[in-house]
Design a protein that fits this description.
43% of the residues lie in helices and 21% in strands. It is built from eight helices and seven strands. It has helices at 5-20, 24-35, 45-58, 72-81, 94-106, 120-123, 143-153, 179-193; strands at residues 62-66, 86-91, 113-117, 133-136, 159-163, 197-206, 209-218. Strands 3-2-1-4-5-7-6 form a seven-stranded mixed beta sheet, sandwiched between helices. Helix 2 (24-35) packs antiparallel against helix 5. It is globular and about 45 Å long. The termini are far apart.
C-alpha cells in the first residue's frame, strides 16, 4: 500500500474503531461542534485517547488545557482526572466556550471542569499553580507564551503536551513567513533550549494529515 493521505486516514479510522470504539458522549460533542459551525480542528479520536492515557499514567489530578474549542479533548482529560480531579480550560471565544460547556455537562464531567474565558496571555497569570499536566492546543503564534506559563504554573515532573508541531513538514523551513509555522518553530526551539524543559517530539500522519506533538516534562 502506498503512503498517502487516504491511507493515513483509513489507518487512523481502523485504529480508532479498534482501540477507542463507539462513544456517544464524545460523538455528541463533535456533532454539537459541527452544528455550531466551529472549525474541525479538534484532536483525532486516537489522540484524545492518548491524552487520556498520558494523564492517567502520570497520575494527573490537576490539568490545565489551553484551547478548549468544543470541549472534545476536555472531556477526555476530565475523564482521566477522576471524580476528585480538576481541569481548568482556557478559551478565547465566548461562543466556543458555550458549546463546550453544554457538551462537557452532557458528558457527565461538568463538575470537574472550570472554563476560563479570555485570551491565554490574560487568563494564565490569574491561575493558581501546581498543575500536573498542561495540554497546549491554541494559537501557535503564542506557543512560547503558553510554554512559559506552563512551566510557571507547573512543578518539577509536570507533563506538557504541545499539539500540532508537524505543520505538514513546514517546520524545517527557517524562511517560512507563515506565523503558525514560525510560532511552532519558536516553541520547539524553546523546548530544546530552555533549561526548565526536557522534551521530545513526534511527527504523525492520520486523519488530521501530517502533523505531530511534543511531550515535555518540567525539570
Amino acid at each position: 500500500m502506498d503512503s498517502t493521505p487516504t491511507a493515513w486516514s483509513d489507518a487512523d479510522a481502523y485504529l480508532a474503531d479498534l482501540l477507542v470504539g463507539h462513544d456517544p458522549d464524545l460523538e455528541a460533542a463533535l456533532a454539537a461542534q459541527r452544528e455550531a459551525g466551529l472549525p474541525a480542528i479538534e484532536v483525532a479520536p486516537v489522540s484524545g485517547k492518548l491524552l487520556n492515557l498520558i494523564a492517567r499514567i502520570s497520575g494527573a489530578r490537576r490539568v490545565l488545557e489551553i484551547g478548549t474549542l468544543g470541549g472534545y479533548s476536555t472531556i477526555w482529560l476530565a475523564r482521566a482526572v477522576g471524580p476528585e480531579g480538576r481541569v481548568v480550560t482556557v478559551e478565547a471565544e465566548v461562543d466556543n466556550a458555550a458549546v463546550a460547556r453544554a457538551s462537557i455537562d452532557a458528558a457527565g464531567v461538568g463538575d470537574r471542569v472550570d472554563i476560563r474565558i479570555g485570551r491565554g496571555a490574560d487568563v494564565l497569570p490569574t491561575l493558581v499553580g501546581g498543575f500536573d499536566l498542561v495540554f497546549i492546543d491554541a494559537d501557535k503564534e503564542s506557543n512560547t507564551i503558553y510554554l512559559d506559563w506552563a512551566a510557571k504554573l507547573g512543578r518539577p515532573g509536570t507533563v506538557i503536551v504541545l499539539d500540532n508541531i508537524g505543520r505538514e513538514g513546514e517546520i524545517v523551513r527557517d524562511d517560512s513567513a507563515d506565523p503558525k509555522v514560525v510560532g511552532t518553530r519558536e516553541g520547539l526551539r524553546m523546548l530544546g533550549e530552555d533549561p526548565r524543559f526536557d522534551a521530545t517530539a513526534l511527527q504523525t500522519v492520520g486523519v488530521k494529515g501530517w502533523d505531530g506533538f511534543a511531550v515535555a516534562v518540567v525539570v
